[in-house]
Amino acid sequence: MSNSSNENTRRDFIGATGAAMGLAALAFTGNSAEGAEVMEVNAMRPTPEQVKAFLALPEKPVVMVNLLKIKDASEYQKYGMGVSKLLADIGAEVIFRGQCQNTFVGGTEWDMFALVRYPSPQAALKMFSLPEYQAIHVHRDAGLAGQILMPVFES
User: Fold this and answer.
1) Are both 76 and 130 inside the same structural domain?
2) What is the mean pLDDT of residues 44-63?
3) Which terminus of the chain has a smaller tally of CB atoms within 10 A, N or C?
4) CB-based burial, 60-95: b 16+ in 10 Å, e otherwise
5) Is the domain of 55 the same as that of 115?
6) What is the mean pLDDT of residues 31-38?
7) What is the pLDDT of residues 88-107, one digit of tens each?
8) Strands 93-99 and 62-70
């Protein structure tokens, strides 16, 4: 299929589904900001309450959703190279990663998105406490301007 044909197909799809998606979003979330929370974008460490809640999660496989705002790509790349071995050592794996292109809904722009599957929240905390992780964490701090990390369980 030619490039212009691909573009037309994409435009047709977006045009045909855009209104339906908007209506579905309103149906599922309501047309109100009631209950909306402001999220801390530039948090680099969890709060004590967040650590306590994370520790209370069930001991089963969890996928960590990572929304990342990059400050220094070369520093974050050093972190990524170092952490990949540690992930493998604890039985975790990156199942998806990519660069964000824009924000479709919402007001915050992110640079990267990653999904990391851990055997359990406890395994993730164990990795975070390893001396090898602490040694490479300086590159994470130097490379990130902000982040949101969300543990998600498969339903």
Assistant:
1) yes
2) 93
3) C
4) eebbbebbbbbeeeebbebbbebbeeebeebebebe
5) yes
6) 46
7) 999 999 999 999 998 888 87
8) unpaired
- What does the alpha-carbon distance between residue 122 and residue 118 come to, in Å, rounded to a whole number? 9
CB 97 within 8 A of CB 114: yes
pLDDT value, residue 42: 64
Question: Is residue 41 situated within a structural domain?
Answer: no
Which residues does 79 contact at the CB level (< 8 Å), separation at least 6?
136, 137, 139, 140, 143
**CATH code of residue 52:** 3.30.70.100
DSSP code for 54 = H
* Whether residue 82 is found in the same domain as residue 145: yes
Q: What is the pLDDT of residue 41?
A: 58
CA–CA gap between residue 122 and residue 91 (Å, rounded)? 12
Report yes or no: 125 and 34 within 8 Å, Cβ to Cβ.
no
Contact call for residues 139 and 75 (beta carbons, < 8 A): yes
CA angle in degrees (0–180, nearest 5) for 106-142-136: 115
> 125-142: per-residue pLDDT in tens?
999 999 999 999 999 999
Residue 13 domain boundaries: 1-36
| Tokens 């809904």, located at residue | 105
